[in-house]
Amino acid sequence: MKHTTSFLAALAVGALTATVAASETELTVYTAVEAEDLARYAETFNQSYPDIKINWVRDSTGIITAKLLAERDNPQADVVWGLAATSLLLLKSEGMLEPYAPAGVENLDPKFVDGDNPPSWVGMDAWVAAVCYNTVEAEKAGLKPPTSWQDLTDPMYKDQVIMPNPNSSGTGFLDVSSWLQLFGEEGGWQYMDALHENIARYTHSGSKPCKLAAAGEIPIGISFAFRGAKSKADGAPLEIIVPSEGVGWDMEATAIVAGTANLEAAQKLVDFSVTKEANMMYNTGYAVVAYPGIAKPVEHFPEGLLDAMIDNDFEFAANNRAAILKEWQSRYDGKSEAK
Amino acid sequence: MNSISTDPGTLPAGPDIKPKLSRDDMLMRGSMMVIALYLIVTLALPLYTMLSKSFSTYRVEPSQYEFQVSDEAGVFDGTILSGGELNRQMKVFADADLVTGSDGRLPVTGFFPDFNFRSPVMYQIRNTTNAGRFLIGSTLKEGTDWVELDSNTFRRVQMRPVQSRGMGNFVSYFSTPALFNSIKNSLWISVVSTIVTVTLAFWFAYALNRSCMRYKGVFRLIAMAPILVPSLLPGIALVYLFGNQGMLKELLFGASIYGPIGIVIGSVFFTFPHAFLIISTALAISDARLYEAAASLRSTPWRTFWTVTIPGARYGLISAAFVVFNLVITDFGLPKVIGGQFNVLAVDIYKQVIGQQNFEMGAVVSVVLVIPAILAFAIDRMVQSKQVALLSARSVPYQASPNPKADRIFLIYCSLVGLFIVGLLAVCQFAALIKFWPYDLSLSLKNYDFNKMDGGGWGSYFNSIKLAFLTAVIGTTVVFFGAYLVEKSNGFKLGRSVFQMFAMLPMAIPGMVLGLSYIFFFNNPSNPLNGIYGTMAILVICTVTHFYTVSHLTAVTALKQMDKEFESVSASLKQPTMKLFARVTVPVCLPAVLDISIYLFVNAMTTVSAVVFLYSPKTTLASIAVLNMDDAGDIAPAAAMGMMIFYTNAAARIIHLIASKGILTRTQAWRSR
To answer: Does ipTM exceed 0.85?
Structure first.
């Protein structure tokens, strides 16, 4: 099929498309994993399965989710490897995932595996919200480090905070959904109203607030812990703050897209994704992984992060996603610049 | 019969005489049809699909569900409750709540005021039609069978919307203040940028055409430089100059560069060459006799300026204004990078489609965006058609006379504008080489390690070159051949004017809108052309179509300069037209052909708006990589990639210059006697 279509295309516009090498299987893998990790993931995978080539499609969580949903009737992806569980629940509810129990799934922490049997998705690791705090810039601006989410609504932080837009960023969405769970529906929106007064702007991606904080563009970036740890390792004057009320988190997970032409290779990839080896690979950046007992502490990771993780209700997050985003947009999107 | 008897003066109508179509005419009409068909498939049909998509709404229909409620013991008495009836009685959801996006969902427990998830009451639910859908947790239920659930599971039931048609999307668009506000924002920044750019470009062009200033060639080159970079690059430079860690931050006196200020400055940068080119052409030709008349009437220079110079250039000025307005209102890269919370229409489309999966709303915003774009385009066309020859056979070309004082002022002015343009580019290059701004200022090539960033790495750079090359070759062929057929074929007036209209249309369609309409049209499994979705082919087609108009106009202008006699002569010599085309027309028009190809090449390297919806993992592009790296916060690598595009385009221009010089001396010798 792929060959005939690309042949037609070639006829139409003149040999533009590259032909697929016949000897190895190619998998189109959609992911929201940080770009700099992708080569390492593919390399580790290829040590076990050298004849499967991974073609990555990477973007922010919201965008990958949007792409998958848009391609609902004509899926382009074979596997989703490293996407928020809330997003995978959405895809599952559209019947877009192929249930499959990978070999060795029983070794994983059951919290990290879809409840159905066979499961539609299996978890990899947890990514946890955190606040990146640039000590140098904060000192210049005369700020005190915040210790809680509520602190961030203090007027002294006016225009000193950047957070991701939950519409496009998975990190942004887990922040919003965690506040709604922590402070209750009404309290959550009240909190965001107050926080909105201090927000300089909302970014499109979840790692950008932390990178901006690292570059001194802003003293405080609401982002996730892993990003902060990386920027700190790069030499940025960052403090990673874990707010005392608890932090939102989401799981990165793997699933096979229903209707894939390369089911066998896709299953191999999912098999690999639950191995101890793969989980050790996730551990390089993520302190919590699905495989129990192997996680080592991550350099520059803030202490007490794991205990601060809230009891997240993924189904609440997935089923209320559309309503939450609609509400969020009507409250905050573009409101600040109304002229 | 009657008519003949009453009016003997007229002769009975004879049979219609039509010239017989020669094989040549058939061939030309056939080819014209093929290219017209190309434009229909790549432009008209996708746009139509998009328009129809904007009327496609999603609505939850409570009446599509039926419920049964048991007593405390779990026994059902057989009463069937309709969801629509319950919603009317309980007033749970207003009409506006029921209209949602394609992924909307609404809970059902509100229909039952006594509902408690701990109660032993059982519930049954079913769809009344096969089209109905609901969720239990995350599991989709279709079909009309009853499903029995306990209270705790029943609270997890969510109704899903079904597709219908109507104005619902437009209503919800205009009732969302954040979205509606964007219209105002877009118009505001476009008007301000237009005024600033046209004013700056006018004096720049005036200095180059009407003064005896030195270094004109250098300034002309500098003025064209912004055309070689993506529109988001000035945004990145502005972040380094005026951001919170900016080198010249103090110049803003506390105002934030993220917002209208940044958008306007950046827009001036990237639209400057377009305005400059148009105004410069308008100022280049003028009749010296008018100035002599003004001088002999003892008019002051100021008065001469307003009564001779400005009226002479008015069409150029108006045209430049509308072109700039159109470029700014449809650009999305720049407001994306530097716009902060200042929403504009083009970014709204991106946010709706990419961020929120709301393709229908994206289509609605597209329709809204097309209106000002088409208006500006139509006015521009009208003005241009009025542009009659100012230069008659008796005109004397105006020659500037030296005026040391004025020339010095012009030189200072042009240097300042030049410094602005070169400065922004230099800042980007500088930023790309800094290790970790602002904390570690040592030089490094770390930011060129694109493979570790978003956007597809170095592969995307080579993809861009491939795209630019293919666009230049294929686009030039299609466009020039199409223009030739329209210009030189005989008869077939209707077909030709329809073709002309199609060829003009792409200019009025914003790139974002074109790209979005391509998703709707090509990513549809029932479309036989579905196979090209996600390939390089769709990028080439989209880019050729996007930049069709200017290329077409260039080709038509060149062809108009060739006498129709060539065709007559070749016909009387019984030579096929295609031979004439290959042996005479193409060589004569070679300068235009080369111009079209470099225009397409450069634009294919820098375009973001149309292709941002269409690239795939194998066809990531450098310009999109700039956008994605900036999105992810990797601003320095984004600047590095942007400068790679600049150098590539500059190199292509130089090669083009050398090649055309070489070819022209060989083929255009006839031009000089």
So the answer is: no
